[in-house]
Amino acid sequence: xxxxxxxxxxxxxxxxxxxxxxxxxxxxxxxxxxxxxxxxxxxxxxxxxxxxxxxxxxxxxxxxxxxxxxxxxxxxxxxxxxxxxxxxxxxxxxxxxxxxxxxxxxxxxxxxxxxxxxxxxxxxxxxxxxxxxxxxxxxxxxxxxxxxxxxxxxxxxxxxxxxxxxxxxxxxxxxxxxxxxxxxxxxxxxxxxxxxxxxxxxxxxxxxxxxxxxxxxxxxxxxxxxxxxxxxxxxxxxxxxxxxxxxxxxxxxxxxxxxxxxxx
Length: 264
Hints:
The protein is mainly alpha-helical.
């Protein structure tokens, strides 16, 4: 196989890589999940109820309700980033896990596909948990307005795949752990602030709206907001198409980058 191979070399090995990560998590689940279970609740209380007392939206919607779809997109994104950016770099350069695995009949494409699927799994767990929390708080905070909110769970697979692939793309070119500050500040932070999670996208300056359209998180937030509010729009098909195309592109780029790093 060469780095430029167009057809992924995928087998049952991809599942085995995913299974390995699952088994590690099952051994460490207490330390892994405690902070993640508490953090979304703190953010809802601090930003939604605290800051929300001083924020009045033009639509008349309560800020805590507006914030819900953003949290459903952001926290799963962070799960992908930490799992597939920092986590992948550690397995690549510090632990030598990837090279050990490809010494077996498992291919590079299996390893990277398994890692992306695992990042997606962590993302899906986060999205499901936050949706449950938002639903439980709905009688008091009115965060979930439609039963269509359940569609967030299956659709969350696509952003999970995308953000995992983007993270591995950077891990494939990073030469030092310190370089991940560039990834966080130049890629993750802009998505965090300009993805429509904290502020109404239509009220941002025109230049920010144009830039924000190219941010994957924007499209994930748009989809989740439509499902949670029950207001479906034709533009959501464009959001979904953007995410699917971006996922395919970054998946191929992640395979290419890691093939080049591990085969060379």
